[in-house]
TrEMBL record:
Source species: Pseudomonas indica
Lineage of the species this protein comes from: Bacteria, Pseudomonadati, Pseudomonadota, Gammaproteobacteria, Pseudomonadales
A Pfam family: LMWPc
Family, similarity comment: Belongs to the low molecular weight phosphotyrosine protein phosphatase family.
GO molecular function, one term: protein tyrosine phosphatase activity
Domain Phosphotyrosine protein phosphatase I: 1-149
Record-given protein name: protein-tyrosine-phosphatase
């Protein structure tokens, strides 16, 4: 099972999702069976580590994001992954726009899939520290639900 998380810059939301979900998958002993990555629809931050505010907030909850590096979403990702989960509708639209007709990967909004109070992960980049905590809260809950879903599919 191959899962790709997508946001705009690949330095805040999707690396958080990658780190949190990887942590959950490792705890469940499933790291050999679930491949995880993240990407951004934009290219401004390619090659960079996640935002320092994102790293700090994650570290305080026990997730180490420091080794991650941003990359841009590519059309080929539709062939490389089974499940592509976008953080917001704008990300979803941008990915849908380059989706090959033959693509088999499933594409969805990460939170909508799990019937949470919000269906988008709000972009924290231009806001205060609360935004980074909210990103973690939402992603932790959705990651639990995603792991349960995948366990049922493996
Ligand atoms: P992300 O957040 O999509 O969660 O990584 C953002 C990071 C950078 C920018 C916007 C959103 N930016 O405009 O540079």
């Amino acid at each position: 099972m191959r899962v790709l998380f997508v946001c705009l810059g690949n330095i805040c939301r999707s690396p958080t999702a990658e780190g949190v979900f990887r942590h959950r998958v490792r705890e469940a002993g499933l790291e050999e069976r679930i491949h995880i990555d993240s990407a951004g629809t934009g290219d401004w931050h390619v090659g960079k580590a996640p935002d320092s505010r994102t790293c700090r907030a994650a570290r305080l909850r026990g997730y180490d994001l420091s080794g991650l590096r941003a990359r841009q979403f590519q059309r080929e990702d539709f062939e490389r992954f089974d499940l592509v989960l976008a953080m917001d509708r704008s990300n979803l639209r941008n990915i849908q726009a380059v989706r090959p007709a033959t693509a088999r990967a499933e594409l969805d909004l990460f939170l909508r899939r799990y019937d949470m109070a919000l269906d988008e992960v709000p972009d924290p980049y231009y806001g205060g520290e609360d935004g980074f905590e909210q990103v973690l809260d939402l992603i932790e809950r959705a990651s639990d639900a995603l792991l349960a879903e995948i366990k049922g599919r493996l």
